[in-house]
Design a protein that fits this description.
139 residues, 434 Repressor (Amino-terminal Domain), 65% helix, elongated, 7 helices, mainly alpha
Length: 139
C-alpha cells in the first residue's frame, strides 16, 4: 500500500522546498558578504603608529595610558597582531581620538571605494592636523 499525502493548506513538500530555497538564497548572500568583508584590508599598524606619533607619545607611554603591555603595542604597530575592538577602544580612549578616525586611518585605498582620491587626501590631511593638535582638556 502506497501512503498518500493529505493536502492541508497546500503541499507540505512544496512548502519545505520553498523554505529550503529561501535558506539557500540567504546562505549565498551571507557568503557574498563574507567575501566582501575579507576584501577589506585595514592597516591598523600604520594607523596606530601614525596616531601615536602625531600625539607625541612613545609606545611605552601609550601602553601605560591604554593599560596594555608595551610589547603588545609594538606587535600591533609592526602588524604582527591585529587589535580587537576592545583594544582599539582602549587605544582610542588613551589617544583621545574617536575610534572611527583610527578606522579611517587604517583604511587602504581599496577600502575607500567611491571616495575620490583628492577627497581622501584632503580628509587624511585634516585628520593628521586634528591629531597633532592638543587634546581638549575636560574638567
Amino acid at each position: 500500500m502506497v501512503p498518500t499525502r493529505t493536502h492541508v493548506r497546500g503541499d507540505p513538500f512544496k512548502k519545505l522546498q520553498k523554505i529550503l530555497g529561501s535558506v539557500e538564497g540567504f546562505l549565498r548572500s551571507q557568503q557574498k558578504v563574507r567575501r566582501e568583508v575579507s576584501r577589506v584590508t585595514m592597516d591598523f599598524a600604520k594607523a596606530l603608529r601614525t596616531a601615536r606619533a602625531a600625539r607625541g607619545l612613545s609606545q611605552k607611554q601609550l601602553a601605560a595610558l591604554a593599560e596594555l603591555d608595551s610589547s603588545f603595542i609594538s606587535l600591533l604597530e609592526s602588524g604582527k597582531r591585529t587589535p580587537s575592538t576592545a583594544t582599539l577602544e582602549a587605544i582610542s580612549k588613551a589617544l583621545e581620538v574617536p575610534i572611527y578616525l583610527i578606522m579611517l586611518l587604517a583604511s587602504e585605498p581599496e577600502d575607500l571605494r567611491g571616495l575620490p582620491q583628492k577627497e581622501a587626501r584632503v580628509l587624511g590631511h585634516q585628520i593628521l592636523t586634528m591629531l597633532t593638535q592638543e587634546p581638549a582638556k575636560t574638567d
